[in-house]
Each structure stands twice: as C-alpha cells, then as structure tokens.
Write a structure and sequence with these properties.
The complex is a heterodimer. By secondary structure, chain A is α/β, with parallel strands linked by helices. Chain A has 9 helices and 10 strands. The chains are: A alpha/beta, B mainly alpha.
Chain lengths: 259, 263
Amino acid sequence: MNILEIRNIIKTYQTPHGSFNALDDVSLDIKQGEILGLLGVNGAGKTTLSSILATLHPPTSGDVLFKGESIYHTLLNYRKALGFCPQRQNLDMQLTVEENLLFAGRYFLLPEAVVRQRAQELMENFQLTRYRDYEINALSGGTKQRVLIARALMHNPEIVILDEPTVGLDPDVRRILWDYIKQLKAKGITVILTTHYLDEAEILSDRICILSKGKVLLIADVKELKSKHQQKSLEEIFIALTQEAHQNAATELEQNNHG
Amino acid sequence: MARALTTNFNVFWQLVKRDAYVLSFQLKSKLVDGAAIVALQVLVFGHLLPLAGMAPNLIAPTFIGTIIQLCITLGYGLSLRLLFDVEYNRFISYRLTLPLNKQWLFGVYIVNFMIEQLVTTIPLFSLGIIALGSSFVTVHTSPLLFVVVYFLSLFFMASLFLSFSLMYSFRWFFDNLWPRRLTPLLLFGGSFFPWKKVFAFSPTVGVLFLANPFTYVAEGLRATLIGGPDFLPIFVSIPMLLVGITVSWLLFSRGVSKRLDPV
C-alpha cells in the first residue's frame, strides 16, 4: 500500500541568471513501512524533494498525496503524521536536550504524561539520558544528530524523512544511527532516507530512487537491482547509471545544437 | 474547520508558552536592566535636562520619545535574532513543519516581540512617570486610549521589525539597517520633538514627519498620556498606526515569500 504518492512535482527557482528546475516532473510512490533511499550527486534535487515532502516549501506544480489525499488539503493532519530531520541541524538552541524533546511533544499536542514518558523513552533509546540537561551548543555533532532524530520521533510519526542524517559523522556514530534507522523500520515507520553515501543506502534501503539533475533516473528494489547487475555494489551501479545519464544528456545537447 | 482552528490555536499557544519559558530565564536581568534604565531616565529628565534649561512642557513629550528610541533599539535586537535564526540556526524551519498554519506561526513571533517590548517599556511608563513626579506635566490623561495606542504601537513595531528581519540579507542588515532605515525613522519620527513644534518651525519638515509611522507612535502616546492641544489628535494617530501595521504586514509577506518560501 502506498503511503505517499508524489505526482509530477516541479520546483523552479529564480536565479540572477534565469530560472532552473531543481525538480523536473518527479513522480514516485512510497510504500508503507519501507525505507526508501533517495540518492543523487550534489544538486540532484534530493534536499529539495525532502523539503517539499516535509511541507517546508511548496512545489511550483504537482501534488503529493498522503493516503490518497493531497497533503495541501489536509496539511495539519499530514504534518502530525510526519517527522522531519533536516540536513542542517535546527534544534532549539535556547533549550536543553530534554526540553527540546518535551516541547516537541507539546507542539504536537500530546498529553503531558505521554510527553514525559516519550521523552524519557527516546532519551534512553538514543543514549541521551546523560545529556538531558546539556545545552545544545555543548553537544558533539553526533549527539546533536541523535537529538534531532529523537525530536522527529517524539509524536510517533508514521513517516520519517531523514535528510543526510550521517553527513560529517564519525564511522562508529554512523553505525549507531544506522541501527536506529533499522529500528524505525522494525516499528513499521516509513523512512525516506536522503543520502549520498551509497553504502548507507545499500545497507538500509528496501528501494532506492536515484535523482539526477532534478529527474528520476531510476526507482528500484535494492536486491533486484543488484541481482540484475550481477551483484555489483550499489556504488558501481550508481556510477554506471549516472555516467550513462550524463552521456545521454550530452549527446542530446549536441544533437540539438547540430539540429 | 473548527478542528483546524482548535489545532492551530493549541499549537500557537504551546509556542507562545515556549517563548515565555525562555523569556522567564531572562526576566531577572531584564528587570534589573529596566530598573537601571528608569533610574537613568529619571536622572536625565528629572534633573539634568531641567538644569540645562529644557522647558518644563518638553520634559514629558521627550521622555516618551526616548521610550520609542529604546523600542527601536530593542526591535533591532529582536530582528537580528530572527535574522540570525533564518540564516544560521534555522529553528524557524522546524517551526514551519509543525501542525499549524504559517499565519499562526508568524503570530507567535509578533506576540513574542510585543511581550519583550512590553517587559522593557512598562517600567518606564509606570515607575518612570511616578519617579519623575511633577516634572512629568500632564494636561489630560486618557488611560483607556493609552492602552489602545500602546497596544497598536507595540503591534506596529513588532510587525515592522519582523519584516526587517526577512526583507534584507544578513550583510545588508548589518551594514545598512541603522544608517539607512532606523536613523531616519528615529530622527524624523518625532521622538525628540512634538510634531506641532516641528511643523511650526518648518511646514515642509512637518509634512516629511507625517510620512513616518513613528510620528504617530510618539504623538499617539503623548496625546493619550499627556493630553492637551500640543499633539496630533488621536483620531489621526490611531488610523495612521493601522496603516503602518498594514504596510508592515505587506512588507513582511514579501519577505516571507522571498526568504522562507513556506507552504
């Protein structure tokens, strides 16, 4: 069953040199309970798509359906079902770790007893208990990232969007975060994982969607994709596909210039 | 519809409570600052300026004018805080994904700005005036109208400074907001002199002052707190403050689309 259906999304930005499409007619379905890896090189449109799905920015055209209904018609309900962990850490710097979680629960209108219980659970799960009274500035990058994910989970969302959750983290911290992400799937939460680490996508994702220059290059089941490409690593497949796409684009451009 | 309204209001209320919680940590230092400002203002307006020869009937209007200067300085700080957040911390991005509509979210910022300005200016309007005693000469005070003008003034300044934080780039804000926006607004806004005195001195400059919404803040507060014929009538100041609020909101909407592009 599809929990999200992305329909013909176009996102156009105006720049001093004219306009360009960060997303160009992107359509894909996201199944309930899966981990979908959104891959692409820098500037492919991953973060733009994540921020549209997180309702941070509107698309220029197109729609996103949540359980069959446009998220723009049921905005508040959709936001209640969504946990967003952005690429750039945006915790409340004026509150402690525990207060960040408590207020997050309150913003989603959970009863106070549930808020406290949930914050306690998440601090234990994410090994944050010893940092509960720490100010955000006093935390390391990895700990901040764990707080960010914990905050996104405070209201028990059905969908979690993780935008580059392990960028800049030490390998051991990355591994710990991978375990948390696997735990989310085990709980039936749908995860949209934006990453440009291909090993991460290979280990965590059920399916991957490769974006290139704002277009969907490929949507495939990771296992099927690997078996189709004789068990090559996802990295090799990714490089082959993106090179092919760039080559096709260059040939097309050349033909247009000649034509 | 009713459910959406309830959700919006409840989330709005939680955000206001968060801001009040953060403000509560600074309350002690704000009260100490407030007391120090009151003491200095009373010293200057109650003793030093009369000794320097300032006419008694100018003490009260100028005292009110300096409260507006304080609001502008405070507004700059609040504006800078939001601008810094938009540029660096991006906590506003988290808030924009909460289950409330953007209009309600921006209402949270307005309320926060207003509360912070209120906490700083209330001691001046109460303790300051009491401490000035007979130096603060009044003709006819209208407490109820004062509350209305005070509220509209805080609302106007909150809207204006909120729009400043989204209209300009970080660099432009730092380099140019004071010299190009705030200084003219301050100097040509009747903070230092009642408008009728300016008009009597030069009608052209007087008309120029009327294009500045801070003139109506200063004159509205003076007319309701001091009273008498020396200030712009309240039926001019109140509508003009509403115009100022509307224009600020239009600028703010443009800034929001340009900088945040929210749903």
